[in-house]
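Severity: low
Component: inverse-folding endpoint
Summary: output formatting inconsistent between runs
Steps to reproduce: submit the following structure tokens with default settings.
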């Protein structure tokens, strides 16, 4: 793998027909998401006309790779929002099958050491991407690290999903119960 530095000043546009009656072909764990480009939000690049499958991780799920004939750029932006760039070309989204439980819904937080129990906590799930929120409005983005571990990034906690997705045991001694 070669890291791409700087930007290309020209690009050759190619058309890649879709296969199987209009269904975009998958490439590794990336799925074609049409044609496009977007300014900024670049987090790296690789040489070659196709996305590097090793760049499609749980942390990058739902985000975009834009590929030209000789290179790909990886962007921290959902494919649907990746528009308005100067060099539209093949656009891919990262799909990660994490095997995790469906966690969307309302939860009760429990801190046994403090006798704390409060409802109104929420999780919104989009594939392996998660958004955690508390009743007081605090939020954290997150993701499935693997099929049974979730990470709440801003809250800096990791949780183990148990009981078929009905309980999350956090590494800070608390847990959430699904309602």
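Observed output (run 2 of 3):
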């Amino acid at each position: 793998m070669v890291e791409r530095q700087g930007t290309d000043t020209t690009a050759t546009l190619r058309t890649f027909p879709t296969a199987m009656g209009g269904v975009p072909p998958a490439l590794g764990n990336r799925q074609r998401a049409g044609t496009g480009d977007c300014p900024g939000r670049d987090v790296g690049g690789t040489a070659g006309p196709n996305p590097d499958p090793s760049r499609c991780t749980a942390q990058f799920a739902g985000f975009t790779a834009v590929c030209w004939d000789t290179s790909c750029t990886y962007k921290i932006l959902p494919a649907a929002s990746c528009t308005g760039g100067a060099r539209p070309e093949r656009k891919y989204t990262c799909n990660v099958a994490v095997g995790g439980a469906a966690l969307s819904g309302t939860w009760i937080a429990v801190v046994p050491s403090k006798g704390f129990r409060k409802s109104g906590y929420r999780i919104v799930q989009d594939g392996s991407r998660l958004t955690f929120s508390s009743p007081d409005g605090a939020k954290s983005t997150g993701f499935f690290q693997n099929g049974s571990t979730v990470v709440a990034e801003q809250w800096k906690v990791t949780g183990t999903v148990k009981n078929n997705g009905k309980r999350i045991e956090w590494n800070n001694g608390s847990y959430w119960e699904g309602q």
